[in-house]
Amino acid sequence: MKNKKNVMVCVTQQVTCERLIKIGADYRGKDLGNLYVVHVAPEGVNFLGNSKEGEALDYLFEISKEVDADMTVLRSSNVVKSIVDFCQKNNIGRIILGESLETSSENSVITKLSKKLCKNVDITVIPT
């Protein structure tokens, strides 16, 4: 019997992240776990006052509901720590991320997550 793995999809405040959520739903189906969609917003930034960002997150929330996923917006000044903490609290076995636009691999969220997460968490990077 296959172990149940929860899947986490990390999104930004862009409607194009819809594709990441749908890919996460496909993985959730294979791994037989729950699907979590997570956006980490910097502390002190009022994204709801920005109509484009607020509308995008609202859209992603609707897409999350369509695929039976829980969407969470976290406030933090440390994105990597917030993602790692969420993984530990929610028994995440796979993280789906979009490709980083960071030119330095050292500064990439993906690289930082790889160093902080245990070996039981698979990271799947989806190219742009």
Automatic annotation (TrEMBL):
Highest taxon above the source species: Bacteria
GO cellular component: plasma membrane
GO MF terms held by the record: phosphorelay sensor kinase activity
Protein name: Universal stress protein UspA
